[in-house]
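Now read the record:
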Amino acid sequence: MDFKTLYTQKLTTAEEAVKAVKSGDWVDYGWCTGTPVTLDRAMAKRLTELTDVNFRGGILMWKPAIFEIENPAEHMTWNSWHMGGIERRAIAEGFSFYAPIRYSELPRYYRDSKTPSNVAMFQVAPMDEHGFFNFGPNASHMAACCEKADTIIVEVNKNMPRCLGGFEESIHISQVDMIVEGSNPDIASMGAAAPATDVDQAVAKYIVNEIPDGACLQLGIGGMPNAVGSLIAESDLKDLGVHTEMYVDAFVDIAKAGKITGLRKNIDKGRQVYAFGAGTQKLYDYVNENPECMSAPVDYTNDIRQISALDNFMSINNAVDIDLYGQINAESAGTKQISGAGGQLDFVLGAYLSNGGKSFICMSSTFKKKDGTVESRIKPTLDNGSIVTDTRANVHYFVTEYGIVNLKGLSAWQKTEAIISVAHPDFRDQLIKEAEKMHIWKRSNKR
C-alpha cells in the first residue's frame, strides 16, 4: 500500500470535510488537546445551516468556534464526558450537558452503544512511515470512538507530540476517510500550576510520609496532587512507578529528579502509563517519542484489575467536600456540575485491592465564599443535589491540613469522630452538634 498516494487521495479542505455532518448527527469532537481547531472553525460556519447536531467531547482547553455562533442551542448540544470551566459556562446557555459515566467505561460504551457515531473529527500527529496517525496525549477512548464512527476526519497538527504506547494510541490511514492539514496551533497548555499554598504543603507532607520506595503513583489534577508531586521530587524516595489516568507536569518533575524508574512495577515494568495528558509545553516535550512513557486506552489505565496488580499503588485525588457519613463529592457544587466522575472511584477501589496500596482523598478544610465568609468543606450532609463520587464504604484515607485519617471499616460514630478531627477547629463544635442530631455521635467521643 502506497501511504503517500493514499494520503493525497484523502486530503481535502476543512470546508469540504465538514459537509459530512448533517442535521441530527452525533459528532465526536476528540478529547482534551485533540479537539479540532481548523475543522471546528469550518464546522461553526456550517452549523448555522443545521439543527439538532449533537457533539461529544470533554476537558475543553479552549472555547470552540461552534460555541460562538448565534443561538447555539438552536443548532446543537454539547455532551461532555468531563466538564471544565468553558463547558460549565455553556450549561447556562442551554446547550451543554454532562454525560455521567465512569471514565474507564467509555471505550465499552462506544463499542456497545446503539447511539450512532456519525462523524468523528479530531487532531492527530502527522502520519508516520507506516501510515499511522498518532492520537497525541489522548489515547483515552479514541480508538473505540473511531471503530464506531461512520466517517473519520483527522486534522493533522505538526506540533502534536507523538506518544508511544502499547496499543490503541494511533489510527491507520486505511481507516481514515478524510485528511485535513490544520493550522498547526501550539498544543493548548493548562498553564503552570499555581504555587503551592501552606495548606497544600501541609496536606502533601501527610501523604508523602505514607509513600514507600517503589510505590506506583496516580495523581489527580489540581493544586494538592501537584504539591504532593513537588514534595516527592524533593524527597529521598526512589524507584517509583507511574500508572495514572492523567499525565500531569508533576510527573515530569519527579522523573527528571531521578525518582521514577518503574523497575518495581509488577506490570508494564519501566513504563509510565497514562490515558491522556495535559499541562505545559514541558510535558508535551517530555512525552514526545519517549519510550519510557506509555499512552494507553482508559479501559486499561483505569481498570481496577490492572491497578490492583501493581504493588504499593498510591492514588492521590482532590474532592469538593465530604459529609460526616464519609461520602465524597468530587464533581459538583450542589446541583452545579463542576467536573465529572472521571476515574476517581476506579483508583480508590483499585488502590485498596493493591498489595500495600492506599488511596488518599485530600482537600482544604475550608473555602472562602465570594462575600469573604469562610465555610467548612466538611458538612453534616452533602448539599442538596451534590453528587456522591466515592461512597462511604469505599473511602480509604482522608486528608486535610489538620491531619490524615483512615476511614476504612469504621463504625458510623468512629468515622464521624475521625472526620471531625481533621476539620477546621472553628467548625468542630457545630459539626459535633449536627452529628448528635443525626445519631452518629457517641457520648464518650473525644471533644
